[in-house]
Amino acid sequence: MKTGFDDLDNIVKLKTPQLILCVSSDYIIGDFLLNIVKNISIIQKESSLYIDNNLIRDCSENIKKERKIIFENKKYEMEILPMLIEVSDYIIDDIISSMTMLNRTKLLDNRIVESVLTQEEIIKLSKNNKIDLIEIVDGKKIIKTVELFNKEEKDKLKEADFKIKSAPLFLEHKERLSLEDLKELCCKYKKEKTIKCIFLNNIDIINNYNQQEILKELQDLSKKLDINLFIGKSIFNEDEISLENIIKNLEVQKKYTDTILYLKDGVRFDRNILHIWIMKSINKKLGKIELIYLEEYDKYINLEKIK
Q1: Which residue range is the domain that position 33 belongs to?
Q2: Beta-strand relationship, 48-52 and 197-200
Q3: Whole-model pTM?
Q4: Phi-psi bin for 210: left (phi > 0), alpha (psi -120 to 50), beta?
Q5: Which residues touch 114 (CB under 8 Å, ≥6 apart)?
Q6: 62 FRET partner, CA 20 to 30 A, in 75, 104, 235, 266?
Q7: Residues 94 and 139 grouped into a single domain
Q8: What pLDDT sits at residue 273?
Q9: Per-residue pLDDT tens for 23-71?
Q10: What is the DSSP letter of 282?
């Protein structure tokens, strides 16, 4: 089993059960972990569980209201467009975008259109395979032209949907949970689904615990269940702290983890480069690797492939 990133796999050996802490201030942990999930569950067909704290709300009433607005006004006036975002589970769509190289924004726009309109209505009301949505922002109408998927793109989406549905990938949305609840959930999936990897995108969703205690408990759990456990942790005010001090602060947590990945987005000349500093508890060496990030597809790839 591999992360799918060659340089990372050379250092982080997933054959050995371990707790891997992913730290960043750049709001990229979820994207990074989902790329690994795709590589493990979709491509390698290894069973994994992804736990996140973004709740997907029921938008059925919003969709009914939007349809009424559209057909009463004879226009595509999406007055509550932001509330329709949840018609598409961002986890699945981010994975699909990475798999198919379909633009994430275009994917979301098409999901919204298909949620509000039937296929017959889309065919009747579209022009040159496009639909104009009128988004209401602060009382002002802004025309948003949505380019609909062509046949090739629809085929890609259909194939990706099938691969995801047939993959041993399990998703749990949890706004908050206790450490005991998390451990119970992990044990359940290990027993019932023979999970090999578990991903928690945000350690802060665990209630009322010292984070060092959480890490120690989860490190023990990874050994007990014989799994790789990835945990995301966001840090703040990082720009005011030197890299040397950040690494020094992370050294304190190294004794409670097996591997720490510090993720930093590139800026200026190295924009779209993800820098990853790697610390392992078995030695005191600090390794570093780099990946290319294709933002519009939410896709990380090995730097060597670009070279």
Answers
A1: 6-53+174-306
A2: parallel
A3: 0.83
A4: beta
A5: 122
A6: 104
A7: yes
A8: 85
A9: 988 788 988 999 999 999 999 999 999 998 875 656 667 667 766 766 6
A10: T
